[in-house]
Acid ceramidase (Phoxinus phoxinus), 390 residues
Amino acid sequence: MKLTSVPNILVISLFIYSQFVHGLEDCRSGMFPPKGPTFKGNVSWYTVNLDLPPSERWTQVIKDKNTELFTMVQTIKDIAKGFFHGKLIDLVDEELPLIVDTLPHPFNEEIKGIAAVSGIPLGEITLFNIFYEVFTVCTSLVAEDLNGNIYHARNLDFGLFMGWDRQNKTWTLTEKLKPLVVNVNFERNNKTVFKSTNFAGYVGMLTGVRPGELTLTMNERFNFDGGYIGILEWIFGKRDGMWMGFLTRKVLENATSYEDAKAQLSLTKLLAPAYFILGGNRTGQGCVITRTRINTLDIWELDLELGRWYVLETNYDHWEAPMILDDRRTPAMKCMNQTTQAKISLSSIYDVLSTKPVLNKLTTYTTLMEVSTGTLESYIRDCPNPCTPW
Ligand SMILES: *[C@@H]1O[C@H](CO)[C@@H](O)[C@H](O)[C@H]1NC(C)=O
Ligand SMILES: *[C@@H]1O[C@H](CO)[C@@H](O)[C@H](O)[C@H]1NC(C)=O
Ligand SMILES: *[C@@H]1O[C@H](CO)[C@@H](O)[C@H](O)[C@H]1NC(C)=O
Ligand SMILES: *[C@@H]1O[C@H](CO)[C@@H](O)[C@H](O)[C@H]1NC(C)=O
Ligand SMILES: *[C@@H]1O[C@H](CO)[C@@H](O)[C@H](O)[C@H]1NC(C)=O
Ligand SMILES: *[C@@H]1O[C@H](CO)[C@@H](O)[C@H](O)[C@H]1NC(C)=O
């Protein structure tokens, strides 16, 4: 019996559809402070001292998370073995260690340091760093309240449909990733430069705040404009774009203002398309930057006069309809609209991000940020049944 026969497709479609119907729900309320079955735990804090040589910066994080990192890398390898009769893994072990030296400073040295402390082969740590660039789907939003406070929040959904564990009805990769989530305070001269929520072992950034100045998240923009050709080109020697997570890190570490960040995120050539969601510290400063590898297609900004007091991005261009089987945008916007600008706060945004299918089986963590206070809070999430698989 072929899996692609018409009756099978019908059954599979009905199954997926039923999962969605069961998983949808009214906007949640009263979820904050986080509690109950959708809250799996707090995220612990680490300090990374940027005054140290790059190879020594992550030592404490890696020492604490070594077992979990090892398990995760093993799982990724097992998945990668399925591709090209295991040739992909040979490539990882033989070629990626050489490629580390072509990565820009300080990322090359940081990755080498992580490999040395963890005892995990350099090529595999490098693969792990590439993996995040490719397998995240997310919901991010920036909103302004009536007093001009800017909030920025996100759900990070990781794993992109890999390794469904039938017994536990969860995604294996997503579950293995949860113990690796850490909050990091990046310091220079003993002072915070920026804060982020990170995966131990990954040196790029997906979520972060420069207190008093800006907030930034990145969402995947997959299957557009040649997708990951740029990453393959880079592996095979054509290296004229920047890794997306490295650019976000560079902006969080060194940008001097919202405008500077916006310029860097719009103008730097990338290895793959992406969405950058940026918040500033003044009224009207919040935008979604839609990127191709080369260009910026669109910058969608807050505009209070037009009644646009929030911008919200999942993984589809905001001017197009989302894919019908992955519409997290409509439910999230419905709940934002119901909340209203007068009631927006970290707590009410947490409610929005706790509503299925914005919260789903792939959701790893929820982060809440407020630029003026420099707040960054992250919570590990669970989505017990009934819940949509993504
Ligand atoms: C998470 O942190 C909060 C505040 O520090 C604390 O009240 C709560 O008990 C913690 N929850 C868990 C599950 O650790
Ligand atoms: C399901 O979860 C339990 C407890 O977390 C774990 O021991 C078990 O290995 C999981 N099942 C599979 C098939 O991974
Ligand atoms: C940072 O603080 C520690 C202890 O509080 C101190 O020993 C060190 O000299 C300080 N470093 C800098 C660069 O100020
Ligand atoms: C930020 O700027 C400092 C000083 O120029 C530089 O050493 C550092 O590598 C930069 N950080 C990143 C991530 O590019
Ligand atoms: C906003 O950021 C700019 C650029 O970093 C800074 O000069 C300004 O003081 C900040 N404004 C507030 C209100 O913090
Ligand atoms: C939410 O409100 C905006 C602005 O009024 C509107 O364009 C959008 O269609 C609304 N979305 C939903 C899902 O209610």
